[in-house]
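Lecture 7 notes: from sequence to structure.
We start with the chain below.
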Amino acid sequence: MSPPPPPSLSKPNPNSLSDFIFSAFSLFVFYSSSSPKPTTNLNPHRRFFKFPIMPLTTTTKTPAINHNHHHFASPQSLSEWLRPRLPSDSFAAWGTRPGTKNVHNLWLELSEGETSLADSTPPVRTVEVVVVRVRDHQNRILIESHQQLSNGDVRNRSRPLSEKMKPGETVEAAVVRAVKEELGSIIRVSCSHVSDDDIVKIIPNSYSSKVEERVSVSYPGLPACYVLHTVDAFVDGLPDCEFCTEEEEEYHNLDENQEAERAISCKKHYWKWVDSYTLSS
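Predicted structure tokens for the same chain:
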């Protein structure tokens, strides 16, 4: 019986060739994905822990939006830009409906870099906010119950101390500034010889952040994206009961003093302590 003929070398089996190519490609992908990635060097001597950067995300797919950083020469030019982009009845309520602000307020926010507007219809206002959950040793949290505005309106709040952040401002610096601006009038009475760093003590590992999207209460009809940076802190010199504070002029250092005078500002803050378990996290 003659032996079987040797396999042909001139025409390889097509199945074997495809298996070989697949195996080679799989090995390439494996070694590529398992290669080490570069790491970021963190400064171990930083006084506070490093705050993560929160991306602005939405639940639905939207086209790319150009965030508008051009400067409006005046509140009038901003008003002309906004008018065709917002519902007419909503825009007319700015500064006239109780608890709302006017176009002068928004123009000042843009001038200070506290707010950006997306060039869309309607525009989207993006604001970074620091939220300070001021605690005491009875496990209570300080809540701003309501505000008295410069036009005589009273605006309900029912939320912890919060403040718009300045461009390039760290969370730690924003916390100290927020406490100084909104609680400073009463702290100065009892802590006149104590530095700000000693008055405000951020609780370690209390930082959290989230993004909220909703229609602005201050500017009806204008969608807003709030990037919230929240910390817990102890603040010395606060009364143990309900109290009221007065805030300095928010834009007193701005050259456009006439526009600041036309804006609606907060004159008084009313505060009370509540049990921490009554607040949602």
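Points to note: The chain has a mean pLDDT of 79. The first strand starts at residue 67 and ends at 68.
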